[in-house]
């Protein structure tokens, strides 16, 4: 089997080593979920801070899923290229609301 | 992901016949060539259909309020009471003409038709990377088309809020708009499946020796197009889902608070933003403009190189420009929205990006014109269309500049000037390129040559008529005549240019008649055209290595690429063309 | 494994074996491109959510806090269910890599089971809201809530269909071409983790903030 990917080239025995990593990520994800729910029960005064905390935690969780479960940490260049391109346009589409609100304020909400 | 077919890649042209039943070979086929032809024929049909809608509409514009003889009766009392076009029917014709031409006509022909048929051949692949996905793409597209057309028969008729379907109008329109939304979801999904397939095919399945710098320009154009479809279409899908929710579930994504319709406040929660639709729509639809034009440029490049018998001038420059165009097409969308009160900073930003995007377009056009210089040009039918593309696209592109500048756009916005501008890009521009493609690759697809005399009649009559259609629109627009007016004489400033409307309509009907030679030629050549060998145009790219028509698996022997794509008239060579697939010579 | 590929007589190269330059087979590249388009789909919806939310005088429009009008414990439970289904999915792929079809089937069945549990919980959440008369038309919070979770739910259903195919009829491929089958499980997994990933963002945005 002429494999080039290093994660593919291992024998079943060697592959077993990776399982620990998956379990660790699983535990981390569950803990982070608990933290984010816990923080929400604190009912923080500053809504901005609450949003920032929740989104940072969500991003960490998403990063773990992408990096480990989806093996992005050890992926081929072509996939990185596609994802960087997508990230660029994703940011653009996320910037859309600010484009609309910018110089308008929320005033476009008809009164 | 995809399943393999059981044939190997070395079938002879007709060896596949006895192995598959009719419905597997021609209807639910996984062969990229059959799917390409299915797309192309469907798209050509819809182009004719969409054009017919416009020819009917042109009656009302030329002779407002007068009964249309014969056809008026056929269309029935709801659409044409007493033979006079009802305003609602006029709006349906306008909205459906735009939608059909763009989403059911040009894109399926340029990408689904030519992309599917030509790309795997030009890169020396046996098929697309995912043949079943390819079939699924067509069979999602077709129901979308049928649904779109069926909307004419729903109560209240088809969508009538323009092809852009701006809310709040579209949110409160009759049920035809919901059908429009659902068929758009199907068509978008089909495009997504197709674009994934194209990217994987071009990246993974190129023949031995075919590096990126040896790819024909058409393939580069298709690759960029596929990325545009992949990343720009989903936001429109999201927007369409939200519009469906607005219309079916009564939500208010696009409906502001306190909206008054016919004197009564609309009973919805409110709090939405009509501008949100415009942003999401144009986030797709501006890249979509490049989806329409890039494959056309690709076809023109192939035809020009082949018929000037010299290499394309500035091949690498062309590739860089097309990639740059692709990128830039994502950051110009709000130039369609200068009149929404966007604010000066944003307007300046989008005005600047719009001016920047014109640069690569001009580079591409310049490269094509430079390619003509010093060439020993053969004026074949495809070359006539490709040459005509150059000035037509130039007119379309240059008239776009005043629309990209905020100051002049305020005056010209939503006038007939805009209609003239984008039709010059898409009709005598893209469509002429697509006709060039049909004439150029017809021998490859069918093994028969199209009739040159009929082709020339088709070209010259179309070329003259189409300019009578779109050129007067610039004058009407500069006189201030608004688009989408049911009766152009309703305003005093429209009456001065009403005579031009008669000219345009006569031009449009003449253009309709000009397509008859093409239709006759298409079917006649299919039956009785002169048989051709593999390479009737003495071309250099890989598709001409396969038999005409290619059998399942495409190539008799696995092709190997030895040189760059357009090595015509190489000094010291016996022939004036050195195909990519021939060693030495 | 080369014999297996040859035995297949596939006319299309790199169906199973990775491409020498890109290092991946066609399917994996295809699924990542598909996910890229999904990023744009959910990105646009998310962006619309931000726009409508920032434009509203109060969020949620009916007053109070988001966490008071949705069921946070059920949402948390569903998050845990989906995260668990993600690891069972990884383990089902790992079992293929380690050459055990029975263990693959076990983990895959668990994944499908958990996905179904997610939908059942979602059903109760929806039903509760409908019982209160809170339909999508109620206000923009519900509009966004139902649109986003509904679309996500459709993705879950899609995943269940694909995974069920791999568990049943699709697994016959294990005997003829185990490597191809493992690739398919990996691709289904990539999709499944993405659906999980979307939920990771939806949960705090729709339930907690």
Can you describe this structure?
- The complex is a heterotrimer of chains A (111), B (585) and C (209).
- Chain A is mainly α and 111 residues long.
- Chain A has 2 domains: 20-70; 76-102.
- Chain A contains 5 helices and no strands.
- The N and C termini of chain A lie far apart (68 Å).
- With 585 residues, chain B is mainly α.
- Chain B has a single domain (35-255, 270-545), classed as Cytochrome c oxidase-like, subunit I domain (Cytochrome C Oxidase, Chain A, Up-down Bundle), CATH 1.20.210.10.
- Helices cover 62% and strands 1% of the residues of chain B.
- Chain B contains 18 helices and 2 strands.
- Chain B has helices at 22-27, 32-62, 71-74, 76-79, 87-122, 131-150, 176-204, 217-249, 274-308, 315-328, 344-372, 381-398, 401-404, 406-412, 416-446, 452-478, 492-495, 498-528; strands at residues 260-261, 264-265.
- In chain B, 58% of the residues are buried.
- Chain C is mainly alpha-helical and 209 residues long.
- Chain C has a single domain (2-208), classed as Up-down Bundle (Four Helix Bundle (Hemerythrin (Met), subunit A)).
- Chain C has 8 helices and no strands.
- Chain C is elongated and about 60 Å long.
- The termini of chain C are far apart.
- At the A-B interface, α4 and α5 of A face α8, α9 and α11 of B.
Task: List strands and helices in order, with pairings.
The complex is a heterotrimer of chains A (111), B (585) and C (209).
Chain A: H1 12-15, H2 19-41, H3 47-69, H4 77-94, H5 96-101
Chain B: H1 22-27, H2 32-62, H3 71-74, H4 76-79, H5 87-122, H6 131-150, H7 176-204, H8 217-249, E1 260-261, E2 264-265, H9 274-308, H10 315-328, H11 344-372, H12 381-398, H13 401-404, H14 406-412, H15 416-446, H16 452-478, H17 492-495, H18 498-528
Antiparallel strand pairs in B: 1-2
Helix pairs in contact in B: 2-5, 2-6, 2-18, 5-7, 5-8, 5-9, 5-15, 6-7, 7-8, 8-9, 8-10, 9-11, 9-12, 9-15, 10-11, 11-12, 12-15, 12-16, 15-16, 16-18
Chain C: H1 2-8, H2 26-55, H3 66-69, H4 72-97, H5 101-131, H6 140-167, H7 173-176, H8 178-208
Helix pairs in contact in C: 2-6, 2-8, 4-5, 4-8, 5-6, 6-8
